Predict the 3D structure of the following.
Amino acid sequence: MSEHLIPEVNQRVAELYCLAERHFLKRFPRPAIKLDLKGETAGQAWPEKNLLRLNSQLLVENREHYFKHTIGHEIAHLVAHQLFGRKIRPHGREWQFIMEVVFSLPAERTHSYDTRRARSVQRPYLYQCQCPEKLIPLTSIRHNRSRKGTVYLCTSCKAPLQFVRKESVTKDVLSENA
């Protein structure tokens, strides 16, 4: 599905690195790029590995915005790390400077893409809060964290979530109920 996107992604990455190189008068090593990210996360930058991971489903569904903003967001992380080291904050002033001044993009930390179709992770662990008749599905990762002591709160009533049961939930059912 995503192989045809690689040349366009490489072109956008090259454009952004050219902007950074002109601004900072410095060459930057290009990252490895993988279009293997799934779920609700649009992109990830792994500065230590000089790796860019992108969500091909969200890229296809939000093509124009994704190419401009999301890829810029992730490249700004890599450039900030290469310039200022690993002790900077992920969305700190260095990253913001690169986004706003170098790339002329808004320094937005999150995306607002519709992720219902991109969810590949099932959420079979049902939790309940104090809201009447409300069940909240969590992933196995969040369920395991909850079992180890992490407390998740309902976004509506702010009450801690309590495990109810595991259910076999498919991706299609989740998309309809989201």
